[in-house]
Amino acid sequence: xxxxxxxxxxxxxxxxxxxxxxxxxxxxxxxxxxxxxxxxxxxxxxxxxxxxxxxxxxxxxxxxxxxxxxxxxxxxxxxxxxxxxxxxxxxxxxxxxxxxxxxxxxxxxxxxxxxxxxxxxxxxxxxxxxxxxxxxxxxxxxxxxxxxxxxxxxxxxxxxxxxxxxxxxxxxxxxxxxxxxxxxxxxxxxxxxxxxxxxxxxxxxxxxxxxxxxxxxxxxxxxxxxxxxxxxxxxxxxxxxxxxxxxxxxxxxxxxxxxxxxxxxxxxxxxxxxxxxxxxxxxxxxxxxxxxxxxxxxxxxxxxxxxxxxxxxxxxxxxxxxxxxxxxxxxxxxxxxxxxxxxxxxxxxxxxxxxxxxxxxxxxxxxxxxxxxxxxxxxxxxxxxxxxxxxxxxxxxxxxxxxxxxxxxxxxxxxxxxxxxxxxxxxxxxxxxxxxxxxxxxxxxxxxxxxxxxxxxxxxxxxxx
Length: 465
Ligand SMILES: Cc1ncc(COP(=O)(O)O)c(C=O)c1O
What we know:
This protein has helices spanning about 5-15, 35-55, 65-80, 90-105, 125-145, 160-170, 185-190, 215-225, 240-245, 285-290, 315-350, 375-385, 410-425, 435-445, 450-460, and strands at about 115-120, 150-155, 170-175, 195-200, 225-230, 260-265, 275-280, 290-295, 300-305, 355, 365-370, 390, 395-400. The protein is α/β, with parallel strands linked by helices.
């Protein structure tokens, strides 16, 4: 393993425009002309767009039809200056956000419970999760005097829960999932301690896309009077419609009395421009622990619902516009198309003898290979323009199916390229996936510290001009 070499390769991959377009280490003496700037950005965007537009990328852009993007851009343009921190100046954004929260809550079972489901808009799935975890920490401190709060989450729960634990001084207890890649109910229960403030399940988790047994887990949490958070960042805007279409979707939302909070991303299958998500709570009391208020500061009384201060109101306007333009019928139709393409892709993968699907997912399809190096297959796919998400423990990749993959011929092209990639790796056993060293290193406890340092320096690279 040659870290310097990997870093060099990553540098080249991350900075393809070096030497090709002007770069600025400090401010230009005189401002550039607006038209030159727009031309430059348009050129870069045009270089990047074909890959995701044509459906070669896993997840990332969930809608992406040109007219939908234009519509989102129009709405953003109208409110690009808006900042909901100034509620008096932009009451329109306050209206949009309240309605985004309410529409999302109703989609997720709010009208099938007597409890009030409330929430806020955040900047993305990670922020929604951070906020929920901070909320449970503060709630448990105030109401149960727990000072060393613990989160119990399946190993598949998003890494944002680790980030939350690290940021907020909480302990995350990761519980291995069962062979079906779902949370192991008994093991989750066994991991609870008097310090547990919240249990987590995902609908579905990012890696393998298989919804956790939320009904059983949330019931355990309810009986213990602790919180239960369903992370529906990925599935919140898809699973309700999949259920209506007759797909087997286990209950995961506020219809379950033990579910006390949820995260659900408008900027994924809600089809809004990037930068918004919703965090929901059962009851106002919990939500109060999320808020930040200060009454004494010389800058005035300050109140802020989320982690950031100023926020991009234009993105909330765009998210609201996405929701009301799609409507129930739009989401239902999008889900129908996505699930149909996912079905085709799943069947096609199952028919390739060298590949093995992980579990039985609906729209995030993870697979591996027993005889071959799955990362090498993924590399060959990358050379054909495809972008799969690499997974580890066990080694695998996944494709999150979006509207991009429902375009004519995309699923079929994916499968024929995949078959071809398998043949290539089979006939070239010397091929090793380029990601293998990184994954190999993470699997090795002794080297984990080195990987940590390496990843930090990788982020340094990102911020180099
Ligand atoms: C299940 C799940 N939770 C949380 C997140 C984090 O979302 P974001 O990247 O918007 O912060 C993701 C992202 O893919 C996810 O799939």
